[in-house]
Task: inverse folding
């Protein structure tokens, strides 16, 4: 499914103006998460590509590409077997890349718990480069929005929601959505406001943050920011 971020936000704002607030999150919440996850996946993908490009190992490259092809064809069990072999026998960057891809395949299979556990394990492995650990933590955090509690999302990614961290924009958005889903509007407002206040926030993320702030204001469950 293709998403047009601007038209999507306009549609939600039309719902707000028509005073049909009760079903807005029920109708649009999942799509907000999906649109944002696409941004996270793209960012994580670039991190992983840079890591792969800096550590090319021709001996196992063809095997990794073959495993990815199996995953793209939804031959998930075959892909997992191939990736497990690469994790154990591969060279250079491929064992780490295989672990990340295997966790993504678990998402494709619909096993969010296994995927979250795999991403969390990578995120805690000090033998893995820091950028890849952060990418894994972000993937776990976004999966936990729909499959866990706010406290779990916070434990996974709040340390990245700080100035200077490359993933801070996505981390703040995930934390805001998790707080909103948990009904903690005051906390959600703080996270979305931090996105709006950061002049380096990407336009799409900032637009979604403005939209969520409008939702929170319309709910009447958190005071509007002063200033």
Result:
């Amino acid at each position: 499914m293709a998403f047009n971020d601007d038209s999507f936000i306009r549609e939600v704002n039309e719902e707000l103006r028509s005073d049909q607030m009760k079903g807005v999150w029920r109708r649009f919440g999942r799509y907000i998460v999906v649109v944002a996850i696409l941004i996270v996946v793209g960012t994580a993908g670039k991190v992983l590509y840079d890591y792969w490009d800096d550590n090319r190992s021709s001996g196992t490259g063809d095997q990794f590409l073959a495993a990815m092809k199996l995953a793209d064809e939804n031959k998930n069990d075959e892909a997992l077997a191939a990736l497990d072999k690469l994790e154990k026998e591969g060279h250079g960057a491929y064992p780490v890349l295989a672990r990340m891809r295997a966790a993504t395949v678990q998402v494709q299979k619909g096993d969010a718990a296994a995927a979250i556990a795999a991403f969390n394990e990578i995120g805690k492995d000090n033998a893995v480069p820091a950028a890849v650990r952060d990418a894994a933590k972000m993937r776990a955090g976004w999966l936990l929005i729909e499959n866990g509690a706010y406290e779990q999302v916070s434990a996974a990614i709040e340390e990245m929601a700080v100035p200077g961290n490359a993933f801070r924009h996505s981390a703040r958005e995930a934390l805001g959505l998790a707080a909103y889903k948990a009904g903690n509007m005051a906390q959600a407002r703080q996270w979305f406001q931090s996105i709006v206040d950061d002049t380096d926030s990407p336009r799409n993320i900032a637009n979604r943050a403005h939209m969520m702030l409008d939702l929170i204001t319309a709910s009447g469950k958190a005071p509007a920011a002063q200033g």
Notes: Residues 150-226 form one domain. The chain is about 75% helix and 0% strand. The CA atoms of residues 141 and 155 lie 8 Å apart. The radius of gyration is 19 Å.
